[in-house]
Amino acid sequence: xxxxxxxxxxxxxxxxxxxxxxxxxxxxxxxxxxxxxxxxxxxxxxxxxxxxxxxxxxxxxxxxxxxxxxxxxxxxxxxxxxxxxxxxxxxxxxxxxxxxxxxxxxxxxxxxxxxxxxxxxxxxxxxxx
Length: 129
Hints:
78% of the residues lie in helices and 0% in strands. The chain has a domain at 67-128. 9% of the residues are buried. The chain has helices at residues 18-49, 54-66, 68-96, 103-128. Helix 1 packs across helix 3 and helix 2 (54-66) crosses helix 3 (68-96). By secondary structure, the protein is an all-alpha fold.
């Protein structure tokens, strides 16, 4: 039996909104941070599994000596994702408490959140060097 009703619109139809974009990037940054935590735990466990630690130190030396720019870029990108995720999380906590729920304040808080995330990341990167 075929019901003659319109299907749910696809994502290609919608114009991207600021709130939906922030929500998607909040989920992406959370997934990226979880992946980085698992990667760091796994890389430290490789050293625990080795009986002599020689291969682990050789691998670690190769990463730090030859691929230093990759590690620094990955740390900075992780720091940016952490600052964004944390700032957007504070924004969501404010929403849960009933603040900034009007549409104009939602957009204003989004811009403020982006500014806070970028400033936190930039200050930490400057402090790191």
